[in-house]
Amino acid sequence: MSVKFINQIHQRKPWDDSLFDSLRSFSIRDPKNAWKDLVALAGHAQFEKLYPVYFKTLLDLISSSHNADMALHNFERFSEKISDKDYLYTQLTESPSLFQALIFLFSGSQILTDVLLREPSYVDWLSRPETLGESKSNIC
């Protein structure tokens, strides 16, 4: 992944056709809409200064998810609902397992995504290690 490409995200550059191949390399099927989501996300925080590897991690995660376009779009919709965006991005940067879980949830389950969109505070429940790490058969 090129530094130039990440810088274009940080700088919220307008769409141009030269972005097409870079986005397709991350399993994105609709690069133009994906770029809109990335640019919207880039406006949420000072990523270049505070979270310099954030977009590299995000793109790596979505490219290995079930549906990269759906993962990115749902993640953008979710993060838009969070009022303290710095808290969210710090939490995701410090907890790679939570970041991965959210991306895979957003790529594979619209029902669970809709639950998180209605009640974004549930992400705090997901961030507890026992929520994702404990076998569900031990819960009963």
Descriptive account of the structure:
Helix 6 packs across helix 8. The chain has one domain. The longest helix is centred in the middle third of the chain and has 14 residues. By secondary structure, it is mainly alpha-helical. 68% of the residues lie in helices and 0% in strands. The mean pLDDT is 90. The termini are far apart.
How many distinct beta strands? 0
Determine the fraction of residues in helical runs and give it as a percent range.
55-70%
Residue stretches low in confidence (pLDDT < 50, at least 5 long) are none
The pLDDT mean sits at 90
The overall number of domains is 1
Q: What's the gyration radius in Å?
A: 15 Å
End-to-end distance, in Å?
Answer: 44 Å
The biggest sheet amounts to: none
Order of helices and strands: HHHHHHHHHHH
Please work out how many helical segments DSSP would assign. 11
Global outline? globular
Structural class: mainly alpha
Quote the beta fraction.
under 5%
Write out key terms for the chains shown.
single chain; 140 residues; mainly alpha; 11 helices
What is the topological layout?
Blueprint: H1 3-10, H2 20-24, H3 31-42, H4 47-50, H5 54-63, H6 68-81, H7 85-94, H8 96-108, H9 110-118, H10 122-126, H11 129-133
Helix pairs in contact: 3-6, 5-6, 6-8, 6-9, 7-8
